Amino acid sequence: MPAKGKHRRPKSSPITRGFVAAGTGGAAIALPLLGATGAHAAPAAAPATAPQAAVTAAKAAPEAAAKKAAPRTYTVVAGDYLSKIAYNKNVKGGWHKLYKDNRQVIGEDPSLILPGMKLTLGAKSTAAPAKPKADDTRAESRASRSAAKTEAPAKTQGPAQAAPQASGSGFTAPVDAGVTTPYRASGSSWSSGYHTGVDFAASSGTTVKAVGPGTVVSAGWSGAYGNEVVIQHADGNYSQYAHLSSLSVSSGQTVGGGQQIGLSGSTGNSTGPHLHFEIRTSPSYGSDIDPLAYLRQHGVSV
Q1: DSSP secondary-structure letter at 162?
Q2: Tell me: domain 148-302, CATH 3.30.300.90, correct?
Q3: By mean pLDDT, which of 38-52, 190-204, 209-223 is the weakest?
Q4: Is the pTM of this model over 0.85?
Q5: SS3 36
Q6: What architecture is domain 72-130?
Q7: For residue 118, what are the contacts with CB-CB under 8 A and spacing of at least 6?
């Protein structure tokens, strides 16, 4: 029997031991006391997984960026033209953007592209200008007809004209041959809608002459035009001679009217030997004027 005046101390329940009462005026707030194990288990687990996730994300980011930044390429096939490629491949900016990015591969004439050319889609190309091997030039020329434009001297627009005659003014015709395809001939062969020069029926190896005195501003490979010579004349106009099999002049050289500048051929985008001849108001494609009218103004009978 317990002693008088003493009471047994009641045992606190497990629930009560987990709280501390604090407050005044009889009001109390029950604050849970977290055990050592529960308090430190969650924070300890977090540092173990966070660095691993960061490393994985860091590795994945450059791979995703590289995959996204990698430019697409397209190999031209027979029947292609720039607007068709731009439409089919969803090139933002259309054929103008496609041509601008690949100008060094295509050359000065955007309507002349060769099967086998590799074009970059949506980014600037870093490829070297397309130039076929000398041994393969004729074979490639026969096989590389493009729907955009292909010089086709065999398809004559009407009867071939008589060979032009030289004048006494220092000007002459570029070759001693008749015209097959005239200036501004229209048809589906040209995406621009017309022929920018005239074609003379000159077989391979025919002597090509400067039509008048002037200075050679360029002589060399020019994409779809093949081997090309451009001459600036005293009146500020330029004559252009394309698809040559060989060149006899170089850039910066002064030439006289009637002087040999090369031999005709079928280089570049061409289906057969001939001379493509233009008169331009600038050295670049797109500034063409009637070449036969120009020669007639200088006394050449064509």
Answers
A1: P
A2: no
A3: 38-52
A4: no
A5: helix
A6: Roll (3.10)
A7: 73, 74, 75, 76, 105, 127, 130
